From TrEMBL:
The lineage of its organism: Bacteria, Pseudomonadati, Pseudomonadota, Betaproteobacteria, Burkholderiales. Transmembrane segments: none annotated. This is Nucleoid occlusion factor SlmA. It comes from Massilia agri. The keyword Nuclease does not apply. It holds the Pfam family TetR_N. Residues 30-49 bind DNA. PROSITE patterns: HTH_TETR_2. Keywords: Coiled coil, DNA-binding. Residues 7-67 form the HTH tetR-type domain. PANTHER family: HTH-TYPE TRANSCRIPTIONAL REGULATOR RUTR, NUCLEOID OCCLUSION FACTOR SLMA. InterPro entries: Homeodomain-like_sf, HTH-type_TetR-like_transc_reg, HTH_TetR, SlmA-like_C, Tet_transcr_reg_TetR-rel_C_sf. It comes from the Bacteria.
Length: 192
């Protein structure tokens, strides 16, 4: 790693952290273990990140930019609100399946014992996800699918469904794919 540029080193640190989070046992990750994995000193980690919390913030930023970038693409691509909601849910489940380590951040598992602001930030992430679902469902209502009074409750239910699938994935040691077998469930959740 000696010849890497600073931006690349930060990325390597975050990739190593995400990789360590993929371990099914889900033990707390220390900066010493992370440094050892990268064959650098802990001081080298702190040249790029002021704290371990800042490293987790880097992962959260990746999650947010990826997920909300995809949600924006879905909203632009799908005209029907119900199709938007379905695509958002599928994307959220697929994102977790493709990023097991990030799933532990998504469910807060990796943030236990870390700085409280990290969990607060993830709570804000959930609020934004629910808002995106609400928006898609409002579009669906304007197109004759469902009723306005149900939008908030249904959006909350959809987010709870996704987080439940994420938890099951993480608690199964990443064996139970969160996106597998969801077609019927999503159809029931999105039925008028």
């Amino acid at each position: 790693m000696a010849s890497t540029k600073p931006g690349q080193r930060k990325l390597q640190i975050l990739q190593a952290l995400a990789s360590m989070l993929e371990q099914p046992k889900g033990e707390k990750i220390t900066t010493a273990a992370l440094a050892a994995r990268l064959s650098v000193s802990e001081a080298a980690l702190y040249r790029h990140f002021a704290s371990k919390a800042q490293m987790y913030e880097g992962l959260i930023e990746f999650i947010e930019s990826s997920v909300f970038g995809l949600i924006n693409q879905i909203a632009e691509r799908e005209e029907r609100g119900i199709d938007q909601a379905h695509a958002i849910l599928q994307m959220l489940l697929g994102f977790a399946a493709s990023n097991p380590g990030m799933t532990r951040v998504l469910i807060g598992d990796a943030l236990v014992g870390e700085d409280e602001r990290l969990q607060s930030r993830m709570n804000g992430f959930y609020d934004r996800i629910e808002m995106a679902c609400r928006q898609a469902l409002r579009v669906a209502v304007s197109q004759g699918h469902g009723v306005e009074d149900d939008v908030a409750a249904r959006a909350s239910l959809l987010v709870s469904y996704v987080t439940g699938r994420w938890h099951r994935f993480a608690k199964s040691g990443f064996k139970q794919n969160p996106a597998e077998g969801t077609a019927v469930q999503l159809s029931l959740l999105l039925a008028a």
